[in-house]
TrEMBL record:
Keyword 4Fe-4S: no
Residue intervals of the Glycosyltransferase 2-like domain: 39-159
InterPro entries in the record: Glyco_trans_2-like (IPR001173), Nucleotide-diphossugar_trans (IPR029044)
GO molecular function annotations of the record: transferase activity
Keyword set, alphabetical order: Transferase
Alphabetical list of Pfam families matching this protein: Glycos_transf_2
Protein name: Glycosyl transferase family 2
Source domain of life: Bacteria
Amino acid sequence: MRVGSNPHKDMPIATTEYLHQIVIPVYIPNHEGYFKDSLAILKLCLQSLLSTVHSKTFITVVNNGSSNAVDAHLKYLFQSNQIQELINTENIGKLNAILKGIVGNNIELVTISDADVLFLPNWQMETVNIFAKVPKAGVVGIVPQFKMYESNCGNVLFNNLFNAKIRFTAVKNKLALIRFYDSLGWDRKYNQDYLQCNLALKIDDKHTALIGSGHFVATYKKDIFETVVSFIGFKMGGHSEGYLDRLPLDKDYWRLTTQDNYAYHMGNVLEDWMQIKHDSIVDKPIMPSNFQKQRKINSFCFFLKNRLFVKFISVRWMMKLFLKWKKLPKGMINNFNSIGSK
């Protein structure tokens, strides 16, 4: 039996005060073998995040079937108001956990991060700078990597093929780039030219962004997720890998990355260098919001930019012309591989 009317019926939701959401899915089922150091690394990740974001940041952690020890730590952070949202679920897969964290709010920017990212000061401000200065930016990473323009950047290259502001420039932080690939377990036998040059967009006299973005930590415009699927049938891999890559292309958004390095990938083994000390911050400068939104492009434009053009520019002789046109040093051209259609 119901008596009376719910006082909240038909009440509009107030406009959120938050400008930036961070979503971190966490899966640490035990503390043995591969996961031996994972809780300590998660704590470093969250500590570094909390000390480098402004007060208008909404932090969502999705506990994706983790151990009791992880559950207890996350509950402490939530109950002490250090994180704003804690979602608990059985292991439903990484992407499904991310989707749970994204829905249910209207925050303009959303950063999706792995639980082994060590955030560095100013990452948030530098990210927002790119969104503010490049209206076509839809995804912004904070960790430069090798040849990021090869993945899901056909539209950026198509739109800027004759733009002199896009050209190869010197890598700004070579040591951080080396450290990233060390963290993946790579030996250092990769092409050393990749440590020298990155394809970049000159925004203005003070700002440059790299073309492309990695996956393990990146910030998205929220309107990219206006329509999302409700379930992905893979815990990892399968077609889940490309789902977040496809969505920005549907609106012709560009993938970009900060020129300098603003985070480290820690992996699953705790090392001494990870004990970076962050000074607590009162607040960081909060950038203007209301970034320009894009409409979904038609299927022909999508195919032209992200399929046909990518195949065309991947032809070896065409790629060599492209590298030369974009000012890659002459001695490096023959050693750079062609674009992939990932």
